[in-house]
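Might you be able to review the protein record set out just below?
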Amino acid sequence: MNELESKILLGINIDPNVTELNEAFKVTEIADNNNVDLIGIQDHPYIGFFFDTLTLISYLSAKTKRIKFIPNVANLPLRLPTVLAKSIATLDILTKGRIELGLGAGANLKAVENYGGPKRNLREAIEALEEAIIVIRLIWGLNVKTKTVSFIGKYYRLQNAYPGPFPHHKIGIWLGANGKRMLELTGKLAEGWTISMFYVSPEEIKEKIKILEKACLNNGRKLNDIIRNYNLAGEITKENQGPYIDSDNLIHASTEEWIELIIKFYKDLNMNSFIFWPTSKEKFEQIKLFCEKICPIIKEQIQ
């Protein structure tokens, strides 16, 4: 049973922009000192003005005490799963259990190829992702009864490899999944699902949930075994106005309306985790509002 299953999770997004390090530190401090559960950082190594996500998590996590971190999501094709497993386990040990692993097949496959990664079509990328999950868990030493581990796959292989280091806690793998095959893989192997509202509207979420729940049942699992995260992008406005969701699925709403909307999504869409992605230029002020004025009230009303 997932240790985070019974409660709603609230988080913030931090962009790994090289010009926003001071801002990243400030909002991390605010989140850590308020009733916020996690910080998500997107991972696009091929973007030149982005920091390396895992290194940034290492830096920020060292300056916090309680908040969890998750790459949202790690770009698998540009990260060897054995080394990724070791990096994530190391971070988890250093933070005493405050790391989860968001993982994706590599949405921009052409950018991956241009950056020196493998050339794969979507089917191959999903097959590689499934193999990688097996490899990662072998390196983490889950259910390992031998000194070495081996795995021979189409995309990845281990041969008498030494597992470890072993994570501080049982790290959850959250898959960035949109299509049917990815949702089925999530129901089969993952502890979490993460999706963005600017890709999948609230009206589409219910159908995705049906696919995910069926995949869980087919694999002897329950939907509540999986954390279901919805990345919500938009701005916190000064006045009540709706809320208004524009053509790009960005939310424009006051603090009171954000509270109402997230609680509605929690109840009606069956999502139980939400990460706020501010689109306003005043990111610091927006995240401060979310952490101090929105999260505490949602937690109070739901828990």
The chain has one domain: 9-302.
